[in-house]
Amino acid sequence: MGYVIALANQKGGVGKTTTSVNLGACLANQGQKILLVDTDAQGNATSGIGIQKANIQKDIYDVLVNETPISEVILPTNHPGMDIVPATIQLSGAEIELTNLMARETRLKDALQEVHDDYDFILIDCPPSLGLLTINAFTASDSILIPVQSEYYALEGLSQLLNTIKLVQKHFNRSLRIEGVLLTMFDARTNLGAQVNAEVQKYFGDRVYKTIIPRNVRLSEAPSHGLAIIDYDPKSRGAEVYSQLAEEVLEAHGK
Ligand code: ADP
Ligand code: MG
């Protein structure tokens, strides 16, 4: 049975997509079969792992709104061992359309049942909001990985995120847990990084990953080539740290 992890933080630009794609690819390199689920209308995970818009017949919107079987939507990515449920701009209206549908919070969970056993990990890249798409992701997930950008006000908004997690636990998914908290875009040259690190440690304790993702320009270049960092520049610092994160995640799962 695939273990489902949502990558969430309602702030944009904190590294959700970068982590979804690169953690997924590094886990696949460790022999894990991975399904990436793009639930952001921006489709950054989709394009970032090499899916051309012209090759997308149906996407996550069709799964959530039209109940298209998820197996009809899955595409292989540029990284062996990792498939994707793509997203396109079509998804931008879904929050509103879902409001009026039956079982609006459990649609992704229901859809994933079909392919649950085909993967070791299913990673859901969430949009930068706490709306129905993120609720669907939390309801479908075993756990949540929270990327936190190393910057001023890093913790701002996290109480709303934790509140949403509590609500989903209460109403839809009692066993939902926090997988871990990941510091991203860390800049070792400033004191700020160390301060944010201390603050996040104080708040989340041992749920913070030992692996810290530094700023690495190669990580920001890789998506425009449609490649995961380990394929774009396997010797980069970015490739090294995401491989390390994958090992930490596997260890936490006894693998
Ligand atoms: P989110 O999905 O949370 O909005 P992204 O993963 O898309 O965030 O990251 C936001 C931007 O920052 C992207 O342009 C991405 O390429 C870049 N980025 C993410 N992580 C790093 C990093 N560790 N070093 C440098 N650039 C990064
Ligand atoms: Mg994103």
From TrEMBL:
Reactions catalysed, as given in the entry: ATP + H2O = ADP + phosphate + H(+)
One family name in Pfam for this protein: AAA_31
AAA domain span: 4-178
SUPFAM superfamilies referenced in this protein's UniProt entry, alphabetically: P-loop containing nucleoside triphosphate hydrolases
CDD domains documented for this protein: ParAB_family (cd02042)
Protein origin, superkingdom: Bacteria
Similarity annotation: Belongs to the ParA family.
Subunit structure: Dimerizes in the presence of ATP but not ADP; ATP-binding is required for double-stranded (ds)DNA-binding. Interacts with DnaA.
The protein, known as: Sporulation initiation inhibitor protein Soj
Species assigned in the record: Furfurilactobacillus rossiae DSM 15814
